[in-house]
Design a protein that fits this description.
Helices cover 23% and strands 36% of the residues. The protein is an alpha+beta fold and 447 residues long. The longest helix has 17 residues, at 3-19. The mean pLDDT is 96.
Length: 447
């Protein structure tokens, strides 16, 4: 459906809601087309193509709101959608902080973002990519089995409108390739690992055989893993797991957690949370950014900003509701689906690169752990306590040596943030990125 047609559907829906008794209303529609395939041991295991989308309506009566979604856009279904939403809004409890943006808060100028690849990828092409990826992985000496290789492509068309006069649409796309394989045998020990690539433009994906080969080599490198004794040693986080450290920060500065008082950083605004050598940036308008978007889900402008500036925390992530709770200006971080209300969320966040290469970062480590995988969800954003299973490689005299598993690393995020040092190898690959990171002072529990 064209952008004009999508907006017409939304504006008509909002007009019906107002006529039925809503004081305010907004609506979102997300249409999409996607194809995904999975191949295992050379045979196609999964092929799925989907087309369609959902439409969501939020109505506000006084300080009460209700949200209803539907995949059916027939005249009758939309009329029932309005009636159901208005009926629900009359009986739910009041929320003093809900409401649309004032007209002067809405985005007036939308940036043009290069986030939609016009190329449509066929199922046949995806199957060929998945098979090429898996074949390259299985060709690595020591790889004995495969958990499969996958390839996907998709494109979405999003439209947002509200009763304050805001109307916007944008399109985005994404493609990915991945493989997961097993190395070793039951007698000698088995290890598994994976690799993947995701991008807005198909041309920006890594080659399928490169991803497969990397997955196989990662799995083989883990063979012969040893346990190490419990001790305190410097830890090096591979970029693949260092991204998670940035995600823990985002959870802790989310406006919902701050408003509830359930974040270990609830009193940290304007203070030095990281060392002065750490800067963390959000850029929702990044060229070909995997989650770039021209405005937030409530129609407010978004922009590049430093979440952490030379170690100092500069902002919370706020939508309209949390900004009203905290009596602060909204920051344009609202995100939502068709069946859920807006909530704060960041996109295209990265820890800025440091001055030293990863090798230089570990050059003075007599003994330490290079972490490639983390297990479990052991990060408590209320207290900051952190404890997770870890897999990686032992560092001895500044060099990576033998593989290590069955260990746990623990600390507190407040201290971890203060003792975090980024390397220079930042790459922009995902919605959250980080370079290699070193943290001193954490505990390692082993044998």
């Amino acid at each position: 459906m064209s952008s004009d047609n999508l907006l017409n559907v939304l504006t008509n829906l909002i007009a019906q809601a107002k006529k039925a008794g809503a004081d305010q209303a907004d609506a979102i529609v997300a249409d999409g087309t996607s194809v995904s395939v999975t191949s295992r041991l050379g045979k196609l295991e999964h092929l799925e193509r989907s087309e369609g989308g959902d439409i969501g309506l939020r109505v506000i009566i006084g300080k009460k709101q209700a949200i209803v979604a539907s995949a059916d856009r027939s005249t009758k279904a939309l009329k029932e959608l309005v009636a159901r939403a208005v009926s629900m809004a009359r009986i739910v409890p009041e929320d003093p902080f809900i409401g649309l943006a004032a007209p002067e808060q809405l985005a007036k100028h939308m940036p043009t973002l290069d986030i939609c690849d016009p190329t449509e990828v066929s199922a046949e092409t995806l199957i060929a990519r998945a098979k090429t990826c898996e074949q390259a992985a299985l060709a690595v000496k020591g790889v004995t089995n495969s958990e499969g290789a996958s390839a996907s492509w998709g494109r979405s068309h999003v439209a947002i409108a509200n009763s304050a006069g805001f109307e916007r649409t944008y399109e985005s796309s994404g493609s990915s390739i991945s493989a997961s394989v097993i190395a070793g045998t039951a007698k000698t020990g088995m290890e598994t690992d994976y690799d993947y690539s995701s991008a807005v433009y198909v041309a920006d994906l890594r080659a399928a055989d490169d991803i497969g080969r990397s997955a196989g080599e990662r799995a083989v490198r883990k063979l012969g893993a040893r346990k190490v004794k419990s001790q305190k040693v410097p830890l090096i986080f591979d970029p693949r797991v260092a991204r998670g450290l940035v995600s823990h920060l985002l959870g802790a500065i989310n406006g919902s957690a701050i408003a509830r008082g359930t974040s270990f950083l609830k009193d940290a605004m304007g203070t030095e949370v990281f060392g002065p050598w750490v800067t963390i940036i959000e850029d929702p308008h990044r060229h070909r950014g995997f989650r770039s978007k021209p405005c937030d889900a409530e129609g407010l402008p978004n922009r590049r900003r430093q979440l952490v500036d030379n170690g100092i925390l500069r902002t919370w992530l706020l939508d309209l509701r949390t900004s009203r709770q905290l009596k602060l200006e909204p920051t344009g971080h609202a995100a939502r689906g068709s069946s859920s209300p807006p909530s704060p969320s960041a996109t295209n966040v990265y820890m800025a690169a440091g001055m030293h290469t990863p090798h230089a970062l570990m050059a003075d480590i007599k003994e330490g752990l290079y972490i490639t995988d983390l297990i479990g969800q052991g990060a408590n954003t209320i207290t900051g306590d952190y404890s997770r299973g870890a897999i990686g490689f032992w560092i001895k005299n500044g060099e990576i040596t033998y593989p290590v598993n069955e260990v746990t690393v623990a600390g507190n995020l407040k201290s971890m943030f203060k003792h975090m040092t980024p390397a220079s190898d930042l790459e922009f690959l995902y919605a959250v990125d980080a370079p290699t990171v070193r943290i001193d002072g954490m505990s390692l529990a082993g044998k």
